[in-house]
Amino acid sequence: MNALTRRLPRTTSVLTVLGVVMLVLPTLIILVASLTEGTNIIFPPRGLTLHWYSDLFSDEKIRQGLLHSLYVASIAVVVDTFAGVLAALALAGPIRRGAGIARIFLSLGIMTPIVVSAFAFYTVALDLNMAGNLTLVGVGIAVVVFPFMLWTLSSALADRDPALTEAAATMGADPVEQFLFVSLPLLSPGIITGALLVFVLSITDFLVSLVLTNVDSQTLPVVIYSGLRSNVSPLLGAATVVFIAVTVIVCAIVLRIGKLERFTFGR
Protein backbone atom coordinates (compact mmCIF):
# COMPACT_ATOMS: atom_id res chain seq x y z
CA MET A 1 0.00 0.00 0.00
CA ASN A 2 2.82 2.40 0.89
CA ALA A 3 4.63 1.58 -2.34
CA LEU A 4 1.46 2.30 -4.31
CA THR A 5 1.02 5.58 -2.45
CA ARG A 6 4.57 6.59 -3.35
CA ARG A 7 4.08 5.75 -7.01
CA LEU A 8 0.90 7.79 -7.41
CA PRO A 9 2.59 11.22 -7.18
CA ARG A 10 5.23 10.13 -9.69
CA THR A 11 2.59 8.82 -12.09
CA THR A 12 0.60 12.02 -11.70
CA SER A 13 3.69 14.13 -12.38
CA VAL A 14 4.56 12.13 -15.50
CA LEU A 15 1.01 12.37 -16.85
CA THR A 16 0.96 16.11 -16.13
CA VAL A 17 4.24 16.66 -17.98
CA LEU A 18 3.00 14.60 -20.94
CA GLY A 19 -0.23 16.59 -21.02
CA VAL A 20 1.63 19.91 -20.97
CA VAL A 21 3.99 18.73 -23.72
CA MET A 22 1.07 17.64 -25.93
CA LEU A 23 -0.58 21.03 -25.47
CA VAL A 24 2.52 23.16 -25.96
CA LEU A 25 4.29 21.16 -28.70
CA PRO A 26 2.01 22.22 -31.62
CA THR A 27 2.51 25.88 -30.69
CA LEU A 28 6.27 25.46 -30.53
CA ILE A 29 6.29 23.71 -33.92
CA ILE A 30 4.30 26.55 -35.50
CA LEU A 31 6.59 29.12 -33.85
CA VAL A 32 9.73 27.50 -35.25
CA ALA A 33 8.16 26.79 -38.65
CA SER A 34 7.08 30.43 -39.01
CA LEU A 35 10.78 31.40 -39.04
CA THR A 36 11.56 29.46 -42.21
CA GLU A 37 13.04 31.29 -45.20
CA GLY A 38 10.98 29.26 -47.66
CA THR A 39 7.55 30.17 -49.00
CA ASN A 40 5.85 27.18 -47.37
CA ILE A 41 5.75 26.12 -43.73
CA ILE A 42 8.06 23.17 -43.14
CA PHE A 43 9.49 21.63 -40.00
CA PRO A 44 12.35 21.73 -39.32
CA PRO A 45 12.69 25.07 -41.15
CA ARG A 46 15.20 25.67 -43.94
CA GLY A 47 17.04 28.71 -42.71
CA LEU A 48 15.75 31.21 -40.17
CA THR A 49 14.29 34.66 -40.76
CA LEU A 50 12.01 37.16 -39.07
CA HIS A 51 10.86 38.89 -42.23
CA TRP A 52 7.49 37.11 -42.15
CA TYR A 53 6.74 38.98 -38.94
CA SER A 54 7.82 42.29 -40.43
CA ASP A 55 5.57 41.60 -43.45
CA LEU A 56 2.66 40.55 -41.26
CA PHE A 57 0.70 43.80 -41.14
CA SER A 58 1.48 44.74 -44.71
CA ASP A 59 -0.74 41.88 -45.84
CA GLU A 60 -4.18 43.31 -46.53
CA LYS A 61 -6.17 40.17 -45.72
CA ILE A 62 -4.46 39.59 -42.38
CA ARG A 63 -4.70 43.25 -41.38
CA GLN A 64 -8.38 43.40 -42.24
CA GLY A 65 -9.02 40.08 -40.52
CA LEU A 66 -7.38 41.35 -37.33
CA LEU A 67 -9.41 44.58 -37.43
CA HIS A 68 -12.60 42.57 -37.96
CA SER A 69 -11.72 40.30 -35.02
CA LEU A 70 -11.07 43.29 -32.77
CA TYR A 71 -14.37 44.87 -33.78
CA VAL A 72 -16.32 41.66 -33.19
CA ALA A 73 -14.65 41.15 -29.80
CA SER A 74 -15.42 44.75 -28.81
CA ILE A 75 -19.10 44.32 -29.66
CA ALA A 76 -19.25 41.09 -27.66
CA VAL A 77 -17.58 42.72 -24.63
CA VAL A 78 -19.95 45.70 -24.65
CA VAL A 79 -23.06 43.53 -25.06
CA ASP A 80 -22.05 40.98 -22.42
CA THR A 81 -20.91 43.61 -19.90
CA PHE A 82 -24.18 45.52 -20.11
CA ALA A 83 -26.37 42.41 -20.09
CA GLY A 84 -24.20 40.60 -17.53
CA VAL A 85 -24.36 43.37 -14.92
CA LEU A 86 -28.15 43.60 -15.21
CA ALA A 87 -28.59 39.82 -15.15
CA ALA A 88 -26.26 39.29 -12.17
CA LEU A 89 -28.00 42.00 -10.13
CA ALA A 90 -31.41 40.56 -11.01
CA LEU A 91 -30.36 37.02 -10.06
CA ALA A 92 -29.05 38.29 -6.72
CA GLY A 93 -32.13 40.39 -6.05
CA PRO A 94 -35.63 40.51 -7.54
CA ILE A 95 -35.69 37.00 -9.07
CA ARG A 96 -33.56 35.23 -6.47
CA ARG A 97 -36.14 32.48 -5.99
CA GLY A 98 -36.07 31.52 -9.65
CA ALA A 99 -32.35 32.20 -10.03
CA GLY A 100 -31.49 28.55 -10.78
CA ILE A 101 -33.88 28.28 -13.72
CA ALA A 102 -32.94 31.73 -14.97
CA ARG A 103 -29.25 30.89 -14.77
CA ILE A 104 -29.78 27.74 -16.86
CA PHE A 105 -31.74 29.73 -19.43
CA LEU A 106 -29.04 32.41 -19.63
CA SER A 107 -26.39 29.69 -20.11
CA LEU A 108 -28.08 28.07 -23.10
CA GLY A 109 -25.63 29.81 -25.43
CA ILE A 110 -22.79 27.59 -24.27
CA MET A 111 -24.92 24.54 -23.40
CA THR A 112 -26.22 24.35 -26.96
CA PRO A 113 -23.78 22.89 -29.53
CA ILE A 114 -22.01 25.87 -31.08
CA VAL A 115 -22.62 24.67 -34.63
CA VAL A 116 -26.38 24.63 -33.90
CA SER A 117 -26.20 28.16 -32.48
CA ALA A 118 -24.12 29.33 -35.44
CA PHE A 119 -26.66 28.16 -38.00
CA ALA A 120 -29.51 29.59 -35.90
CA PHE A 121 -27.74 32.96 -35.99
CA TYR A 122 -27.25 32.54 -39.74
CA THR A 123 -30.99 32.01 -40.20
CA VAL A 124 -31.68 35.19 -38.24
CA ALA A 125 -29.07 37.05 -40.31
CA LEU A 126 -30.78 35.95 -43.54
CA ASP A 127 -34.20 37.02 -42.22
CA LEU A 128 -32.78 40.44 -41.30
CA ASN A 129 -30.83 40.69 -44.57
CA MET A 130 -27.66 41.11 -42.49
CA ALA A 131 -25.57 38.15 -43.64
CA GLY A 132 -21.90 38.99 -43.22
CA ASN A 133 -22.62 41.93 -40.90
CA LEU A 134 -19.86 42.10 -38.29
CA THR A 135 -22.08 43.67 -35.64
CA LEU A 136 -24.41 40.69 -35.86
CA VAL A 137 -21.39 38.37 -35.65
CA GLY A 138 -20.34 40.13 -32.44
CA VAL A 139 -23.83 39.80 -30.96
CA GLY A 140 -23.96 36.10 -31.89
CA ILE A 141 -20.61 35.42 -30.23
CA ALA A 142 -21.74 37.45 -27.21
CA VAL A 143 -24.70 35.09 -26.78
CA VAL A 144 -22.44 32.03 -26.90
CA VAL A 145 -19.86 33.30 -24.39
CA PHE A 146 -22.29 35.22 -22.14
CA PRO A 147 -22.17 32.59 -19.32
CA PHE A 148 -18.51 33.42 -18.67
CA MET A 149 -19.43 37.02 -17.94
CA LEU A 150 -22.40 35.95 -15.83
CA TRP A 151 -20.33 33.50 -13.76
CA THR A 152 -17.62 36.04 -12.97
CA LEU A 153 -20.13 38.71 -12.00
CA SER A 154 -22.13 36.28 -9.87
CA SER A 155 -18.95 35.30 -8.03
CA ALA A 156 -18.09 38.96 -7.48
CA LEU A 157 -21.60 39.60 -6.13
CA ALA A 158 -21.21 36.72 -3.69
CA ASP A 159 -18.51 38.77 -1.92
CA ARG A 160 -20.71 41.87 -1.72
CA ASP A 161 -21.81 42.96 1.73
CA PRO A 162 -25.55 43.84 1.53
CA ALA A 163 -25.06 46.12 4.53
CA LEU A 164 -23.12 48.56 2.34
CA THR A 165 -26.10 49.15 0.06
CA GLU A 166 -28.41 49.47 3.05
CA ALA A 167 -26.03 51.97 4.64
CA ALA A 168 -25.97 54.02 1.43
CA ALA A 169 -29.79 54.02 1.35
CA THR A 170 -29.90 55.10 4.98
CA MET A 171 -27.64 58.02 4.15
CA GLY A 172 -30.05 59.16 1.45
CA ALA A 173 -28.59 57.61 -1.70
CA ASP A 174 -31.22 56.83 -4.33
CA PRO A 175 -31.12 53.50 -6.25
CA VAL A 176 -29.07 55.00 -9.10
CA GLU A 177 -26.49 56.39 -6.68
CA GLN A 178 -26.39 53.07 -4.81
CA PHE A 179 -25.61 51.30 -8.07
CA LEU A 180 -23.01 53.80 -9.30
CA PHE A 181 -21.13 54.36 -6.06
CA VAL A 182 -21.61 51.09 -4.17
CA SER A 183 -22.59 48.12 -6.34
CA LEU A 184 -20.57 49.01 -9.46
CA PRO A 185 -17.19 49.45 -7.68
CA LEU A 186 -17.75 46.14 -5.87
CA LEU A 187 -18.52 44.46 -9.20
CA SER A 188 -15.47 45.93 -10.98
CA PRO A 189 -13.17 42.88 -10.45
CA GLY A 190 -15.83 40.61 -11.94
CA ILE A 191 -16.49 43.04 -14.79
CA ILE A 192 -12.79 43.29 -15.68
CA THR A 193 -12.24 39.54 -15.49
CA GLY A 194 -15.41 38.75 -17.43
CA ALA A 195 -14.62 41.35 -20.10
CA LEU A 196 -11.13 39.91 -20.63
CA LEU A 197 -12.49 36.37 -20.86
CA VAL A 198 -15.18 37.43 -23.33
CA PHE A 199 -12.57 39.33 -25.35
CA VAL A 200 -10.27 36.30 -25.62
CA LEU A 201 -13.11 33.91 -26.47
CA SER A 202 -14.52 36.33 -29.04
CA ILE A 203 -11.29 37.25 -30.80
CA THR A 204 -10.39 33.57 -31.12
CA ASP A 205 -13.87 32.39 -32.15
CA PHE A 206 -13.85 30.34 -35.33
CA LEU A 207 -17.07 28.41 -35.84
CA VAL A 208 -19.61 31.23 -35.41
CA SER A 209 -17.41 33.56 -37.47
CA LEU A 210 -16.98 30.94 -40.20
CA VAL A 211 -20.75 30.55 -40.59
CA LEU A 212 -21.73 34.21 -40.30
CA THR A 213 -18.97 36.05 -42.19
CA ASN A 214 -18.43 36.35 -45.92
CA VAL A 215 -15.36 37.04 -48.03
CA ASP A 216 -15.38 40.75 -47.19
CA SER A 217 -15.95 40.37 -43.43
CA GLN A 218 -13.76 37.42 -42.44
CA THR A 219 -12.21 37.52 -38.98
CA LEU A 220 -8.57 36.54 -38.48
CA PRO A 221 -9.22 32.88 -37.50
CA VAL A 222 -11.29 32.46 -40.66
CA VAL A 223 -8.60 34.18 -42.75
CA ILE A 224 -5.97 31.81 -41.36
CA TYR A 225 -8.20 28.78 -42.01
CA SER A 226 -8.92 29.91 -45.57
CA GLY A 227 -5.23 30.43 -46.21
CA LEU A 228 -4.34 26.98 -44.90
CA ARG A 229 -6.68 25.42 -47.44
CA SER A 230 -4.77 26.95 -50.36
CA ASN A 231 -1.16 27.77 -49.49
CA VAL A 232 0.43 27.05 -46.11
CA SER A 233 2.53 30.21 -45.99
CA PRO A 234 4.89 31.08 -43.11
CA LEU A 235 3.01 34.38 -43.04
CA LEU A 236 -0.02 32.51 -41.71
CA GLY A 237 2.23 30.83 -39.17
CA ALA A 238 3.47 34.23 -38.02
CA ALA A 239 -0.12 35.47 -37.73
CA THR A 240 -1.00 32.40 -35.68
CA VAL A 241 1.93 32.96 -33.32
CA VAL A 242 1.03 36.63 -32.78
CA PHE A 243 -2.58 35.62 -32.21
CA ILE A 244 -1.56 33.03 -29.62
CA ALA A 245 0.75 35.55 -27.92
CA VAL A 246 -2.07 38.08 -27.54
CA THR A 247 -4.33 35.39 -26.09
CA VAL A 248 -1.68 34.23 -23.63
CA ILE A 249 -1.03 37.80 -22.45
CA VAL A 250 -4.71 38.48 -21.85
CA CYS A 251 -5.16 35.15 -20.04
CA ALA A 252 -2.13 35.95 -17.87
CA ILE A 253 -3.73 39.26 -16.92
CA VAL A 254 -6.96 37.46 -16.03
CA LEU A 255 -5.10 34.97 -13.85
CA ARG A 256 -3.17 37.79 -12.22
CA ILE A 257 -5.99 40.16 -11.32
CA GLY A 258 -9.13 38.11 -11.65
CA LYS A 259 -8.61 35.08 -9.40
CA LEU A 260 -10.03 32.93 -12.18
CA GLU A 261 -10.18 29.78 -10.07
CA ARG A 262 -12.74 31.46 -7.81
CA PHE A 263 -14.93 32.60 -10.67
CA THR A 264 -14.90 29.22 -12.43
CA PHE A 265 -14.96 26.86 -9.46
CA GLY A 266 -16.61 29.05 -6.85
CA ARG A 267 -13.64 28.94 -4.46
What does it look like?
The chain is mainly alpha-helical. It has one domain: Orthogonal Bundle (MetI-like fold), CATH 1.10.3720. It is 77% helix and 0% strand. Helix 1 (2-33) crosses helix 12 (234-257) and helix 8 (162-170) runs antiparallel to helix 9. The longest helix is centred in the N-terminal third of the chain and has 33 residues, at 60-92. Residues 263-267 have low confidence and may be disordered.
In round numbers, the mean pLDDT is 76
Biggest pleated sheet: none
Radius of gyration: 23 Å
CATH class: Mainly Alpha
* Ends apart, CA distance between termini: 32 Å
**Quick one: overall form?**
globular
Q: Quick one: how many beta strands? A: 0
For CATH, the homologous superfamily is named as MetI-like
Tally of separate domains: 1
Q: Which CATH architecture?
A: Orthogonal Bundle
Task: From the 3D structure, determine the CATH topology.
Answer: MetI-like fold
Strand % is: under 5%
State the low-pLDDT regions, or none.
263-267
- The percent of residues in helical segments reads over 70%
Instruction: Report the total helices.
Output: 13
Structural class: mainly alpha
